Small ribosomal subunit biogenesis GTPase RsgA
Amino acid sequence: MTGTVYKSTGSWYTVKTDNGKVYECRIKGKFRIKGIKNTNPVSVGDRVGFSVEKNTEENRGIIERIEERTNYIIRKSVNLSKQTHIIASNIDTVFLIITLNNPPTFPAFIDRFLVTAEAYGIKAVLLFNKIDVYDEEELLEVKYLAALYRKIGYECIGISAKTGKNIAKVKNLMKDKVSVFSGHSGVGKSTLVNAIEPGLSLKTAEISDQHQQGQHTTTFAEMFDLSFGARIIDTPGIKGFGVVDIEKEELGDYFPEFFELKPMCKFNNCLHINEPKCAVKEALEREEIAWSRYKSYLQILEGEEEHYRKNNYSED
Ligand SMILES: Nc1nc2c(ncn2[C@@H]2O[C@H](COP(=O)(O)OP(=O)(O)OP(=O)(O)O)[C@@H](O)[C@H]2O)c(=O)[nH]1
Ligand SMILES: [Zn+2]
């Protein structure tokens, strides 16, 4: 039998077949995937092959194999074993919910999030929430930001989880896909999920300082079926949508508008800092690339973790 892992509690995995039949499965013996040093061999979102256990309670199974993952998001282990914990796998879209204020979501944070999504190979969509309360000036800022990120290739939608504005568009993007919702605490994740699927309440967690990641919370990701053929993975207690180690040389590749220009840089290993004839810096001077993006790039490159709570627009 084959199915998808909907829930994992450490030793038991809830697996749903394509016909909707649910099995509680275990793993037999040491079950390891080659090349991955992780604490959990099977994660929510995995497609698995399993056998139904005979002579036991009904709907029990043993997982025998995992299909290759298209992607997965991770958390570093809290102890120093250098192991990683796979939070979830096979994600189609990750939605970042953004508000200008109450709470503020700064471009540096958005950029860090997008870099992570690029590194993971997951499509990212930006949702600007609470547009019902913005004044004209704030709406202009949303428009500006949306235009900035659309130009790079990211889908952007202004929404109101409260009034229902553009929620149908979000649902459309989610149909037949597996989605994850992220954003700071208070941006409206719970309200949005409830607008999308009334009655479903998730324990959606804040994306927060990576410094707080050490504060271990023993909660587990879980996948939910929605009424319109979409699926959501809820990641409660997981601070951050994961941490990826990115080499300095590859960071620019996760800024799509930089990556596109890289072949035109004089040096093929150009870091776009002080190198001569750098196509990225030239585009920056012509204002074809946003300065806020370049600032975020330099900050990530320098490993300045603190900056994502500051506003890269302010003149400093
Ligand atoms: N005006 C307005 N308020 C909203 C909207 N969406 C959410 N809110 C309000 O924003 C506050 C926070 O919303 P939540 O849905 O609890 O935010 P959350 O992201 O789930 O927060 P955490 O659970 O802390 O992660 C609540 O008071 C909501 O009523 C919106 O579109 N417009
Ligand atoms: Zn360059």
Notes: Residues 248-309 form a domain with the Ribonucleotide Reductase Protein R1; domain 1 fold (CATH 1.10.40.50). The two ends are 59 Å apart (CA to CA). Residues 206-218 have pLDDT under 50 and may be disordered. The longest strand covers residues 2-8.
